[in-house]
Each structure stands twice: as structure tokens, then as C-alpha cells.
Description:
Blueprint: E1 2-4, E2 9-11, E3 21-29, E4 38-44, E5 56-57, E6 69-76, E7 80-88, E8 98-104, E9 115-122, E10 128-134, E11 142-151, E12 154-164, H1 167-174, H2 196-201, H3 272-289, H4 291-298, E13 307-312, E14 327-333, E15 336-344, H5 353-366, E16 370-375, E17 399-404, H6 405-419, H7 424-438, H8 454-462, H9 471-495, E18 499-502, H10 511-525, E19 527-534, E20 540-546, E21 551-559, H11 566-576, E22 585-590, E23 595-600, H12 601-604, E24 620-630, H13 642-656
Parallel strand pairs: 1-10, 15-16, 16-17
Antiparallel strand pairs: 2-12, 3-7, 3-9, 4-5, 4-8, 6-7, 8-11, 9-10, 11-12, 13-14, 14-15, 18-19, 19-20, 20-21, 21-24, 22-23, 22-24
Amino acid sequence: MRDMVKGSNVSLAALSETIDSVIVSLGWGSPTGEGDADVSVLLLDANGKVRSDADFCFYNNPVAADGSVQLLGKTPTADGNEDRISFDLTAVSSDVERIVLAASRYEGARFGELECVRLTLTDGGGEELLRFAIDDADSVSAIIFGELYRRAEEWKFRAVGQGYDAGLAGLATDFGVDIDDAPAAEEAPAEASGDDRADATAPAAAEPEPSTAAVPSPRRAGDEARPDKKAAGRPRTAKKKVTLPKAAGKTLAENESWRDARLFPASALKSDRERETRATSVLLSVMAQVPEFGRRLTAAFGAPAGRMETFTEVTLPHGDTPRRPDGVIRVERAGKLWTALVETKTNGAALRAEQVQAYMDIAARRGYEAVITLSNDVALEGSPLVEVKIDRRRKHKVALWHLSWAEVAHQAQLLIRHEGVGNAAHAWLLQELLHYVRHENSGCHGFQNMGPAWVPVRKGIDHETLCQGDPRALEVVESWERLIRQVCLRLGGELGQKVLPVQRTRRGADPKALRDRLADQLCLDGRLRSELRIEGTPGVLAISADLRTGKLRTSIEIPAPERGYPLPSAKRLIRRLAEAPADLHVETLVEGGAVGPRGTLERLRPEPADMLPKAPGAQITGFRLSLFKGMGSTRGNAESGFIRSVDEAVHRFCTGVVVHLDATPPRRTPTRESPTPS
């Protein structure tokens, strides 16, 4: 892995042999874990400009027209977020010479407020090839992290690190994107501040190109504030996408006992082998028939955008006993093939290390790019589900990826309920897939077991006999982390918004060491805690499971208005919560951490003044809203199970409380600093 410095460049072929598809990650963190930014990608021609507005990929245009670029969205890190971008370099048009990688902040935020601003690039085998840390972001609101560019028929990467005071709007305009609210005739470019421009555009000694025009100077920051600008609109879309209605239409059935005919029936399945075989065939067939869905699931694994074919029960030679992986995925792009073996498990079946190892060996010998495991389990950062040995002597590298059934359901729901697919038939196929994987008999229900350590740990906490260092406590903490990741997927699919777990630790911290500390804390106070960040909500949703009292607490802290008197603010909050549950607990947060007034919503509705602190001069900083629920005792997902009780508690809090709070728009539109292609 190579560490890059500003202005340096490197050939990707010199770092890896599997660079037809790469994944670039732009990341950052903050002490609170809440700092964020938006990524954008610009495909430029020989003149250093986009060919059309379609060459500008950002949050409202996440996929390039030719499929060569796809924004994969955010993944949580120890201290913030990381945005991943998939590049199929074989699909990039021949008249695209450079690809600029950038990110921007919004609402007046600056990159100097973030920590560990960095870029990493990974090859098709999942190996990290290079890293570029930006330590001098300071007060800029947009940054060009780097660029991929062609030179002598090969792809290279240049570390840029140039800041833009004018934000994303200035950056995009300089690269030729038309902006509705800023006519080009009125723009006057300004000089970049400090040494940024010189550093970013200075070529390496052995590399005379690109020239200094490669990174244009930013616009004046004041240009964004001109009062005569028109309000920005949303980018045009070439074709309206199809989504299914959330409410079911009127049925023609005579009574409730009639059941709809299903393309993928699950009721006749009788054995785990039948469930595994049918689940694999159902999923792979829909991936091949619905391009948006197949691409969504495989892009993160380094697959290119192209024609996909899928197969099941394929026999492959392996010594004296041929192996039969559950499935094979093949993607063709520009005459080249990307191939992955698929190993599927349903119900509580666990992946077997020796089986996965055999498939890794077969894939390496046959030149396949990946092995994908699929099960109800959820992989944890830094903790693979199966351990395999990689033969470093082999020239061809194979990546091992894991996919959970919860992720499959999440992506299907996002497409059919929120983002849309190409036509009604594709939407219907996804609906049938979603119905199948959610059927109780399909075996694709997701993470549903807290493990054998759950009951002993609960008893140990009740009897105060659980000691720090007990490995069973660590098992429970890992199961809790898997459950929270699955809750994020389910909630994100329902809301159509990004839902990510928050981890308030330093970047680079060892995930296992963090889990060890959480396990010791569980032994001391008997509580499991997590925080979720839901896009478009004013605060962080906290979940706490108190194993001593058997209570679940879901809560959110919302800040008090910066201006205005306390009583009107309290009354407005009560009005916004008019339809919230009567047993909602409302606590007033007071400056300095002092204990403020608290009470149920039912008691406070007629007397909002009871929310005001009695102490003279006490300043209200915000309000904490909480719901309490008894948690299930068993380790599974039955009616009395702990997992179901957590799901129900989070769902009730989001639908009963969070939806009534003032929030930013769930899908940011380019109205602040964001350009809108005309």
C-alpha cells in the first residue's frame, strides 16, 4: 500500500494487476462522529470540461450514463463516515481523459472542522493500493481529493488536495457544468488562496501532463450570495422511474383467507436444502433480470456495469471430488468477464471455513475475481465470518465478500419503494423477491439469534456473577452490534433514508479492542448501548437495553432554538408532538448538565410551562425525548424474543416520535452550494 503526498502520481498497473474495476473511498471524521460531506465525480474530456451535465455524478445523479461510475453511498467508520465510489475503468468512454474526485460540505460547514480527511483506493480483489491524507483542509467548503487520468493507454492516479472556498457550485462551474442559478457570463474566477493551486497543479518531474489547466481556479466565495440568483431546481431525469405504491390497492378476494398467487412460493419448502436452493435461484434470477438491482448488489464487490448472467448448481473440478457452489455470477463488459462464486446459507446454518476455502482455491485457479458468501449473519468490521488462507504465491488474487439477507431486502425495498426501477415489470419482480425473503418459511429472515451466551450473560448480570473478561460477554456485544447493523438496514429501507450506526471512537482504533471495552462495561452496569444517525433528523437516536431491569429505552436529543423565549419553544414542541404516544417522556436539558424538569407528554400537554427550569437564569440547551419498553428475554426473534422487541421499539419511536420533529429534507437538493444541471 502506497502513501501519497500532494502532487504525486502513480500508475495503477504498477500497484495491482486487477484494476479494471476499482473502489475509491473518501472519508472523514469528527470528535462527535457527526461531521459529514457529499462526494461528487466529474468525467472530463481533453479540454478539462464535462462533455455534458450527465458527466457530473453527485447525490441526485449517483450513476454515470455508461455505468462506469456509481456512488455506493456511505458506510460508518469508527469516527464518522466513508463514501465509496465504484469505477469500471473498462467502461469509461475513450473521450474521457480525466475523472475528478471531490467532496463538499454544506450549510456553511468547512472541512477544517473535520478530522482524518483522506482518500483510499482499492483494487478489484479488495486490496488497498494507495492512501492520501489531506492535513491542510482549513476553511474550504469543497476539496478535490484526486483524479484518475489516462496516460499512454494506462490509468494513473494523482493526489491533488486542492480546496475551494466557493464550494461545490464553484468547483462544478469551473469544470463546465451548467448551473441554473449562476449564468456563466456573470462569473469571474478568483485566485486560489495560499499555495493550494500551485501545489495541486504542479506536475511531477517525470510527468509533464496534465498541465496547470487541469485544476481550474475557484470562483469568488461572494458569488454564491448574490441576491439576484434564481432558486436552484432539481436536475432533470431522462426517464421517470417506477416505484410501487406503499398502500395496497383494493383486493378482489372474497375473504381474507384467499392468498395472492406468488411467483416464488415459500409455503411448500420442507427442508433446509430446499430453502437454500430456492433462495439462491430466486435471488440470482432477479439480479439478472433487474439490472438496477443486480448492479446495486455487485458494484460494491468490484463488478463492472455490464450484461449479467447467473447460474445455479454449477459443477467445478476440485481434486478427486468436484465441487458444486450454490451459484455463479458472470458480468461481461467490453469483451471481458468478471466472475464470482456464490455460497448460500439459510435459516441458522453457518458458513463452513473448509467449504469457503475450497471455493477460494477454485476461483484462484480458474481466474475468477471473487467468492461471495450469503447468509443470515451480519459481518462485523475487522471480524470475518470465516477465516481463509490466501496463497500469496499465486499471481491471481481472489476477493472474499459477504452479503446478508437483510442487505438484500434493504436494497430491494429502496428500489421499489423510494428510488424506482426501469419499468413496472422490474418493480413487480423485486416485490415478489421481497415477499419471498420476508416469508417466515424462506429461511432468509436475517439475523435472528443472539447466540448461546445470551441466557448465561443475562443470568450472570441478574445474580451479579458476571466478571470482566468473561468471553461470553464479548459474544453478546458482537451479537448486539450485528443486530444494530440489521436494524439500520431495515429502518433505512422503510424510510428511504441513510441510517448508520454511530461509533464515537478515534479513527484507526482496533474494533476488537473497542468490543472488549464494551464487554467490560456490560459486566459493570448490565447495559447494551448504541446510537443511530438517521439522515434528515435533528439528532442521534440512542438505544439502550438495560439487562438488569429488562427495559429498552429509545431516545433522541433535539437542540433548543437559538433565538426566542423558552415558553413559546416549549409550546411549539408540544404542538409538534400532538400525535406522539402519550407515554413519551420529555426531559428538559439545562446548560451545565444540571437536571431539568421531566414528565410524560400526557401530563405536559395541558401545562407546557412545567417544562421550564425553576432555577433563576437557567438556560435551556435542548430536550430529550424517550420511550420505554419491556424487552424480550429469549435470544431469538419469537414473540417474546429480544431481537423482535428491539425492532419494535425502534420502529415505534421512529414512526411515533421522530417523524413529527423538524428535520432537514430527507433527500438534499442542490439549493445551498450545490449546482443544478440545466
